[in-house]
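Backbone-to-sequence.
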């Protein structure tokens, strides 16, 4: 069985980072998980910050995300929310989903919202997206670079290059990972 990770809403929000994280799962490096609640949060923020995106586009993105990764949706975690203690109660559902999914890692841009003392008792590690992608590069540099190449190949208007994708990922906070990928091309 693959290494199980739960992606938090904030790492699924930036489109290029979301694409890379999904492609890492498609490459078989990890078994990616999220919940409808995580997606609701992500799409609520997208709607608020990107009024130019129409509901049909966002609904299509949600459908494609759920179809892109087999068994990605975690259900039946709700009863665990109350047992999770975090500084922000609104983040407890992420840990509850990770517990239910048997995840070893939560990937989030808000590491301090998930104190190690609280999540370690569930044998879960919290990683930022840059560290997480660096770990994947260490495991299989070629697979991660291939994912970046496929993202570039998918950009049509305007066409993209690996450098464009890496620039977008760097703007999303993947500084160490993009540095490592630039040296592997």
């Amino acid at each position: 069985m693959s290494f199980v990770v739960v992606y938090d809403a904030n790492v699924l929000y930036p489109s290029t980072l979301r694409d890379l994280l999904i492609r890492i799962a498609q490459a078989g490096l990890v078994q990616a998980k999220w919940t409808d609640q995580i997606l609701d949060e992500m799409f609520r923020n997208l709607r608020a910050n990107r009024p130019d995106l129409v509901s049909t586009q966002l609904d299509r993105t949600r459908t494609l995300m759920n179809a892109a990764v087999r068994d990605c949706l975690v259900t039946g975690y709700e009863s665990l929310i109350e047992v999770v203690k975090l500084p922000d109660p609104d983040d407890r559902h992420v840990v509850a989903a990770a517990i239910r999914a048997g995840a070893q890692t939560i990937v989030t841009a808000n590491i301090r919202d998930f104190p190690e003392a609280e999540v370690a008792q569930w044998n879960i590690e919290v990683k930022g997206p840059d560290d997480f992608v660096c770990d994947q590069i260490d495991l299989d540099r070629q697979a991660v670079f291939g994912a970046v190449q496929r993202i570039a190949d998918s950009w049509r208007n305007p066409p993209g290059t690996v450098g464009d994708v890496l620039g977008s990922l760097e703007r999303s906070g993947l500084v160490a990972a993009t540095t490592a990928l630039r040296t592997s091309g």
